[in-house]
Amino acid sequence: MLVEIMAWNIREMVDERKCHTYPMFAPFSVEKGKPRNGTKRRGSVSLNRIVLSVAEVQRQRTESLTKFQIPLVSSFVLLSIVATILNPVTAAKQCDFPAIFSFGASNADTGGLAASFYPYSPKKPYGETYFNRSTGRYSDGRIILDFIAESFGIPFLSAYLDSLGTNFSHGANFAVGGSTIKTAGGSSPFSLGIQYSHFERLKNTSQFISSKGGVFATLMPKQEYFSEALYTFDMGQNDLTAGFMSNKTLQQVNASIPDIVQSFTSTIKNISNFGAKSFWIHNIGPLGCLSSILTNFRSAEKDNNGCAKAYNEVVQFFNQNLKEALAKLRKDIPLAAITYVDIYSAKYSLFSNPKKYGFELPHVACCGYGGEYNFNSSIGCGRTIKVNDTDKFVGSCERPSARVLWDGIHYTEAANKVVFDQISSGNFTDPPITLQMAC
After folding, report:
1. Spatial CA neighbour of 382 closest among 80, 140, 210
2. Cβ count near 208 (within 10 Å)
3. Any idea of the CA torsion for 115, 117, 378, 122, to the nearest 10 degrees?
4. Domain formed by 100-359+411-437, architecture
5. Which residues pair with 232 in a beta bridge?
6. Is the distance from CB of 271 to CB of 196 less than 8 angstroms?
7. Taking the mean position of all CA atoms in its chain, how far away is CA 107?
8. 3, 31, 409, 431: most buried by Cβ count inside 10 Å?
9. How large is the greatest C-alpha to C-alpha distance in the chain, in angstroms?
10. Has 410 been annotated as catalytic?
11. Which domain of life is it from (predicted)?
12. pLDDT (tens digit, 9 = 90+) per residue, 145-167?
C-alpha cells in the first residue's frame, strides 16, 4: 500500500513538471491498475522504456533543467525509484505480525463450535494426525489458520467462545463451524455480525482486564496489537450451501450473492474503524468438488476433473463479486493492506492434478461411510452405527496424508498444508504479494 501511494505521488509530480516526455516516467494509473496514454500496465513496463543509458538520462536531465527548472536528481536515484514502484514485493518490508484475529466458519474453527455445542462437536478421529485428540478443528490435524500462525511464530489461536485454558495474548479466533455471513440460513447462530460483536467486546474489555494486572492480564492482547495484527477471513461457503440445500434454484442463489458480499465488506470496513490495517481474505473454495455436493446432487454435470460444474460456477460468481468489492474497499480504506486470496484455484489444483501433490481419490472422503464418495450426511465421521446388528465405528482411512478430503466437506491436514504453501507464496493473491508482506 505504501508503494502504491509513492507511485501516485511520483506520477503527480511528473505530470505537474511536464516530464511525461521522459519514456521512463510514462504516467500510469495506480488506483485502477490501467494504462494511461497508451502505456503498459503497472509492473509490466518494458525495460527498453525504463533502463536508459546514463548518458541519455543526463542529457534529458540537462534539457529539463533548462526548460522546466527541475531540481537535479541523480539518474541512479531516479532508476531506483522506478524499480521500487515496479517491484513492490522486493520494496516492501517483511511483516512481523504480533497477533492474528480470525473470522470464519468451520474451515477456520479451532474449537468455537465444540465449546458452544459440545454434543455436536467433532470427536476423534478428528485431530488424530497432529494433536492425537479432537480439538474442535474440522480436519485430522492442522488447518490453514494454524499454518498461518506458525509462519509468524504465533501460538495456535484460542477460540473466543472457549472458556477453558484460553490465551488471547497473540490474538483470538472468532470463527465458528456452520457460520454464515448473513444472519439467516446457517447451522450456527454465530454469523459474521455476531463474530464482529465478539471482536468489539474483546477489544474493549481486554484493556480493562490488562489495566488490573495479575495473571489474567497476561492472557490479553496488548492495545497496539489490534492495529498491528493480521486479520484473516474464511467465510461464505455456508451462505451458498444453505441455498443449494434449500428449494432455491442456482439462479436464485446467484441473485443473493451481491447482498452477501456487501455485508461481508461492510463488516471488514467496520473492523478497520477499530484500527485494523492488514486483511487476508480467502474467497470460497470449489464446493462442487466436495463429496457432500457430489453425493447430494448426483445428476449434476461434471467437469473434466469430476467436479459439479454448475455449483462451482456459482462459487466463481461469488468470488468475482468479492474480488471487485475488495478493489472498491481499497479506495474506501486507502491506508489498509487488503489481500484477496484465491483459495479456490489453490484447492481446485488438488482435484485437477492430485498426483502432483501425492494424493489419490481426491473426491472420496477419508473419514465417512457409504456410497461412491464415502459420504453420508446422516452418518458422520466419528459416529458409531449399526451394520447387521453390529456396532461399526466410522473412522479414518488408512492414509489420511494421501487424501484431499477428510470428512467430505473439509480437507485433510496434508491438503491444508499444500494449499497454505500455495497461497502464502503470492501466486494466488491480489495484489501478488506473499503472506509475509501482507501488511
Report:
1. 140
2. 10
3. 10
4. 3-Layer(aba) Sandwich (3.40)
5. 102, 280
6. yes
7. 11
8. 409
9. 97
10. yes
11. Eukaryota
12. 999 999 999 999 999 999 999 99
Question: What is d(CA 126, CA 116) in angstroms, rounded to the nearest whole number?
Answer: 17
pTM to 2 decimals? 0.80
Give the per-residue pLDDT at 36.
Answer: 35
Instruction: Show Cβ contacts of residue 151 under 8 Å, excluding neighbours closer than 6 positions.
Output: 424, 435, 436
Q: Is 210 helix (H, G, I), strand (E, B) or coil?
A: helix
Residues 6+ apart with CB under 8 A from 266: none
- Other Cβ atoms less than 10 A from the Cβ of 216: the count is 11
Annotated active-site residue 106? The verdict is: yes
Cell triple for residue 15? 505530470
**Alpha-carbon distance 224 to 217, whole Å?**
15
Q: So where are the chain's domains?
A: 2-91, 100-359+411-437
Supply the pLDDT for residue 30: 34
Stronger pLDDT, 62 or 422, i.e. the higher one: 422
- Ramachandran sector of residue 285 (left: φ over 0; alpha: ψ -120 to 50; beta: rest): beta
Q: Distance (Å, rounded) from C-alpha 265 to C-alpha 315?
A: 17
Catalytic position from the list 106, 210, 278, 424: 106
* Inter-residue contact 297 to 240 (CB < 8 Å): no
Catalytic one of 109, 146, 162, 407: 407
Q: Please say if 140 is a catalytic residue.
A: no
213 or 40, which is more confident: 213
